[in-house]
Amino acid sequence: MKKEKRFYPDYLSEIIFVVILCLEALLFLILFFPPQLGREIDFTRQYLPRPEWYFNWIFELLKYFPGEFTIFGAIIIPLFFALVVVFIPFLDKRIGLFWTRILAFSLLVVFIILTISGMV
Q1: In terms of domains, do 79 and 25 share one?
Q2: Distances from the Cα of 34 to the Cαs of 19, 22, 31, 42, 112, in angstroms?
Q3: Tally of domains within the chain
Q4: Shared-domain flag, residues 28 and 64
């Protein structure tokens, strides 16, 4: 006749044994195969900061508006884009659904083109 297993101490001892084996395997992998974190830095080259991908379109606008016209590329044009996006529901009632969709689609195309050109 088989003896019925109870959680304590039978299953608990098996669980603890498996957890210890997994921790040992993990420690082995960590010690003998350390992960390469990040990229290697070359301290002889000058640092070139790059924005994240979702800010590439603004970074690209700054290339088109250098010097004293930077305020257009950094503030005025992005503010205009944001205001257009915010007021699209109100523009929809006034100028019609077709032209609102054309405006939104062209705005999206501008964002995509500037983002991709900023990555290259």
Answers
A1: no
A2: 21, 17, 6, 21, 38
A3: 2
A4: no
Reading the block at residue 112, the tokens are 């995509």
The answer to whether residues 20 and 13 touch, using CB atoms and an 8 Å cutoff, is no
* 39: in domain: no
> Widest CA span of the chain, in angstroms?
91
Model's pTM, two decimal places?
A: 0.52
Residues 29 and 57 in one domain: no
pLDDT (tens digit per residue) in 31-80 = 999 878 777 788 898 888 888 888 888 888 888 888 888 898 888 999 98
Going from the C-alpha of 60 to that of each of 37, 48, 71, 105, the distances in angstroms are 29, 15, 13, 20
Q: Cβ–Cβ contacts within 10 Å for residue 59, how many?
A: 19
Instruction: Please tell me whether residues 25 and 58 are part of one structural domain.
Output: no
Q: How far apart are CA 75 and CA 25, in angstroms?
A: 54
Same domain as 22, residue 62: no
Task: Answer yes or no: is 100 within a domain.
Answer: yes
CB 79 within 8 A of CB 96: no
Place of tokens 């001892």: 13
